[in-house]
Amino acid sequence: MKAKELRKMNDAELEQHLKELRLELAKERGNINIGANVSSPGKLREIRKTIARILTIKRERRSKHE
Prior knowledge:
The chain is mainly alpha-helical. It has a single domain (about 5-65), classed as Helix Hairpins (Orthogonal Bundle), CATH 1.10.287. About 80% of the residues lie in helices and about 0% in strands. It contains three helices and no strands. It has helices at about 5, 10-35, 40-65. The longest helix is centred in the last third of the chain and has 25 residues, at about 40-65. The protein is elongated.
């Protein structure tokens, strides 16, 4: 997801999306650990980058409110 799209979301939506992404990342890593084939190698990287974007946006919002 692009940062523009994430910035349009409110805090509750960002938190929910973050939980979903972390769960998806855990599932993908679990599949790798049991030896299953990865559906898309780039998917892991994209999930991690989106999580980082969400955390960055949350941190920016927190610093603006202080």
